[in-house]
Amino acid sequence: MKYSLSILTIAVIVLFPHAGLIPFFGYSIPILLLTWFVLKRSNETFSDIGFSFVRFEPKALLVGVLCAGAIVAFMQLAFNPLLDSIVDLEYDDSGLNETIRGGKLQFLLMVAMGWLIGGVYEEIVFHGFIFTRLEKMIGGKYATQISFVITSLLFGLYHAQLGSFGVINALVIGMGYLGLFLFFKRNLWYAIVCHGAYNTIIMTLIYLGYL
To answer: Fewest Cβ atoms closer than 10 Å to its Cβ: which of 2, 15, 96, 115?
Structure first.
């Protein structure tokens, strides 16, 4: 099957981190290596899926941070209150809030992971790799639109440990990240900065007791 390796890699990206076989985000290393291997077999590199140090633009810092602030405001002041008023959904922070509030060192460590794992790793494997693989597999006039929806759903389900409320939040927020990637000519730096900045804002609000 032509795309069997891509399908297997997508499954590994979504499922393997939840197996708990490698502690403390260590799963990111073998998955990035697998992603690199699959790209290499297709004569591609990470730059072909939007990630390249050469493509970094200072403007991405400003746009990413501003968009992160806008997403936080939208989710906390509009979307989540509306969702709460419509349906009672389960939310499980999986101990993250307690860890973030565990002290300044733990807070800073979690912020760093929010950038490295959330910002860099997740954007590369989801909105870079998975999205572009789906586009190639689906093909046709609506490949981008269909891939957008499927990638967003997978990104939401990837956060299943946060409960149904967390899944829906991740789905909606992930659409914002992917939208930035596409709007800025498939440059992942905009999504990376937005994702990292969003995590930083949310973790800071949790640390300070506002969430």
So the answer is: 2
Question: Domains of the chain: which residue ranges?
Answer: 4-207
Asked if 190 contacts 179 with a C-beta cutoff of 8 angstroms, the reply is no
What residues contact residue 74 under an 8 Å CB cut-off, 6+ apart?
none
Buried b (16+ CB within 10 A) or exposed e, 38-60: bbeeeeeebeebbbeeeeeeeeb
pTM over 0.85: yes
Whole-angstrom Cα distance, residue 209 to residue 29? 33
Residue 2 has pLDDT above 80, yes or no: no
Q: Tell the burial category of 98 from Cβ atoms under 10 Å away from its Cβ (0-12, 13-18, 19+).
A: exposed
Q: How far apart are CA 127 and CA 160, in angstroms?
A: 18
List helix spans (H) across 48-187: 58-74, 80-86, 96-100, 104-113, 122, 131-138, 143-158, 163-183
